[in-house]
TrEMBL record:
Residues 1-46, 298-321, 379-400 are annotated as: Disordered. This is Endolytic murein transglycosylase. Functions as a peptidoglycan terminase that cleaves nascent peptidoglycan strands endolytically to terminate their elongation. PANTHER family: ENDOLYTIC MUREIN TRANSGLYCOSYLASE. Residues 298-308 have a biased composition (Basic and acidic residues). The record marks 255 as: Important for catalytic activity. The chain crosses the membrane at residues 52-76. The gene is mltG. CDD domains: MltG_like. It is found in: Cell inner membrane. Residues 384-393 have a biased composition (Low complexity).
């Protein structure tokens, strides 16, 4: 046997026997052979199984929910803050001095002016205006939104009330009016201000203003008015001090209620002062007799009153009285500072609310005679009307 043959026999003896090929279907070909282990599951990492990671995921989810809830709250809160309010009619609301912001919000909700105090509080704090609310009485329009109410309370534009003080009242009479006003609060000053030192005009103030504050403002306004007019006075006016100026203005104020007559009345008194004549003003007699309380309405001036000696009776004293007899207004002050240029020394009522003027005593006496006739006729007509006389003429308004 050759070597090649031997070698081939050896190789043939060592090769494994081949199995016969058996045809299989597709599903059988894909089926794992028996004894093949299933694939091992992937193991979770220790990091994934960590409680810290689980907690972090929870926190993240919670934060997302909170942010979404906050965004929703801001959105709907903004809508509520800007939408029309529940009030159907205009309402006044008072914020007292020293009231806290939370108390203001709760009060608005209790009054039905806003729908939700919490929304109002959060929104105002978001704007940073919680410390800007001002005391006062506010007029809140029907349907005003919480935003509009916030702006109103910040503005301080509160409702203003008024008290009219007519020119010519005394300090005591003015104090009576101030005391009777129930919008003002507190007590009046214990000491009466000087006569003539209060501003006579319509005073405007917010609810809660104290009576003492109002009096101080009236004093300041009157001082400013008097100082201004005194500085602009005609240099020929024979008054040495600002007190004399106010005193004569108070007499002019009481003598006539007609603004266009006041410069002429002032001229009469200034002419008399220049001639060293007594002023002979009836209102000074009354102030000397009754002081700041004023003459009772049913008390006439008697002839005997002209001779009663008081420091204010200009029928018995020379020159000006010791002080004002009332609080003069702007017109009377201007009249004394810029009197008419006349030589008249007398005037008397004309029966129509005005006066007739005269430069001589003779002319004046004629005017007085006519006035007495007018007054007598008026009294006669009044008496006839009181007794029911059908033929009596109607009462004539004298204007006094």
């Amino acid at each position: 046997m050759s070597s090649d043959q031997q070698s081939g026999d050896a190789n043939a003896g060592s090769a494994p026997a081949r199995k016969p090929i058996v045809p299989q279907s597709a599903s059988e070909a894909l089926r794992p052979e028996p004894g093949t282990p299933p694939p091992a599951p992937k193991k979770r990492s220790r990091r994934a199984r960590s409680q810290i990671v689980v907690f972090a995921n929870f926190l993240f989810s919670l934060v997302v929910l909170v942010v979404l809830a906050a965004a929703a709250a801001v959105y709907f809160g903004k809508i509520a803050f800007n939408e029309a309010g529940p009030t159907e009619v205009t309402t006044n609301y008072v914020v007292k001095s020293g009231t806290g912001f939370a108390e203001i919000a709760d009060g608005l909700e209790r009054r039905g002016i806003i729908s939700d105090a919490r929304v109002f509080k959060y929104a105002v704090r978001a704007y940073g205006f919680q410390n800007d609310m001002k005391a006062g009485e506010y007029e809140i329009k029907a349907g005003a939104s919480m935003h509009e109410i916030m702006d109103l309370l910040r503005s301080g534009k509160s409702v203003l009330h008024s008290l009219t003080i007519p020119e010519g009242l005394t300090v005591e009479q003015i104090f009576e009016r101030i005391q009777e006003d129930d919008v003002l609060t507190g007590d009046l000053p214990a000491v009466l201000p000087a006569e003539g030192s209060l501003f006579a005009n319509t005073m405007r103030f917010s609810r809660g203003t104290t009576r003492e504050e109002l009096v101080k403002k009236m004093q300041a306004d009157q001082k400013k008015l008097v100082d201004d007019i005194w500085e602009r006075r005609d240099p020929s006016v024979p008054l040495k001090t600002i007190d004399e100026f106010v005193t004569l203005a108070s007499i002019v104020e009481k003598e006539t209620g007609k603004a266009d007559e006041r410069p002429r009345v002032a001229a009469v008194f200034i002419n008399r002062l220049n001639k060293k004549m007594r002023l002979q003003s009836d209102p000074t007699i009354l102030y000397g007799l009754f002081g700041g309380k004023g003459k009772p309405t049913d008390r006439p001036i008697l002839k005997s009153d002209l001779e009663k000696p008081t420091p204010y009776n200009t029928y018995t004293v020379n020159g000006l009285p010791p002080g004002p007899i009332a609080n003069p207004g702007r017109d009377a002050l201007e009249a004394v500072a810029h009197p008419s240029q006349t030589n008249e020394l007398y005037f008397v009522a004309d029966g129509t609310g005005g006066h007739v003027f005269a430069a001589t005593l003779e002319e004046h006496n004629d005017n007085v005679k006519r006035w007495r006739e007018v007054e007598k006729n008026r009294l006669d007509e009044a008496a006839k009307a009181a007794t029911g006389d059908k033929n009596a003429a109607p009462d004539v308004d004298s204007g006094n």
